[in-house]
Each structure stands twice: as C-alpha cells, then as structure tokens.
Amino acid sequence: MQARGTPEEDPGYHLPEEAQLQLQQVRDQLEMMAAMVMPGHRRDDADDAVRLKPSALARCFRQLADEMTSALAAARWDG
Asked: How are beta strands 76-78 and 12-14 bridged, if at all?
C-alpha cells in the first residue's frame, strides 16, 4: 500500500487558505441575509425592522458574487 502524499502532491483542485476563508465569509454573509428576511423572525412594521432598497440589496449581491469569483479564481488544478 502506498502512503498518501502531501496535499500539494494529491491530484485535484486546491484552494489556498485565504480563498477558503473568503468563501466561508461569503457563506456567513448569505446566512445573515437569509435570517434577516426569514418570515416570522421579525415584523416588517417594527421600529427596528431592516429596510433595504433594491439597489442596496443588489450591491450586496454583487459584492458577494465578486468575492466568490475572486476566491474561485484562486483554485488550481493539480492533476
């Protein structure tokens, strides 16, 4: 039986630690946004209700998409 090599020697996609952290932060931001709009968890007419204009929401999604693009661009195939 052959010993398994280091991650750098294993064939497949490799993602640098910084890019993995970036994707985890995108996930966390998406989870936060989902929680903000979850029915039953807040009242839209409450004084502290979060109100986002569609343009602000679009900027949030564009930023998340840009961050994901950057993180995925850092992936490399070693095979």
From this structure: antiparallel
C-beta of residue 4 within 8 angstroms of C-beta of residue 10:
yes
Average pLDDT over residues 41-53: 65
Structure tokens at 51: 């109100």
Q: How many CA atoms lie within 13 A of 39 on its CB side?
A: 0
4: exposed, middle or buried (C-beta count within 10 Å: 0-12, 13-18, 19+)?
exposed
Work out whether the CA dihedral 56, 59, 65, 68 comes out positive or negative.
negative
Q: How far apart are CA 49 and CA 37, in angstroms?
A: 10
pTM comes to 0.68
DSSP conformational letter for 10: S
Asked if residue 21 has pLDDT above 70, the reply is yes
